[in-house]
Model the fold of this input.
Amino acid sequence: MIRLSRRGWNNVLIFATLFMILLFSTSNRMLLQNAEQSQSQLLLPESSEIMAIDYGTHKIERIGRGWRAVPGLNLNESQLNNINIHWQQAIGQPIDGQLSQPYIVTIWLAGQEQGAVYKVLPQGEDLLVQHQQQIYLVKHQSLSSFIPLEIQ
Done:
């Protein structure tokens, strides 16, 4: 057994208490970050590359590094690229509910044989997006950021 004076044992207790406080505060921060990340998630897989966005009557497809709309829409290449960026960066929070009369969008990703089907419906300043039976709330995004006005 270690022989310490009363002052020595007090120092051991102080440092052990500080260590426990530090341990609990860092583990709490990690748990809170994991909970926040599990609530919000990207709508498309991370690091995925969109090859085409199909709206049924119209399609936006990648041509090399650029984009084109088939049949033609009154959008330039930078506007088409902005739609692509909005889809890739969209973050939604899972919610419960149902969508009635949504817009249907099929997104074709590089390396995948089948397109991913998304149902999109505006709700005030936000969007509701359904993918694989799960509905996500995408906050502060307009429908025209994801679907060109000519198609709506």
User: Anything to note?
Assistant: Strands lie at 41-42, 50-54, 59-63, 66-70, 91-95, 103-109, 116-123, 126-131, 134-138. The two ends are 79 Å apart (CA to CA). The longest strand covers residues 116-123. The chain has two helices and nine strands.
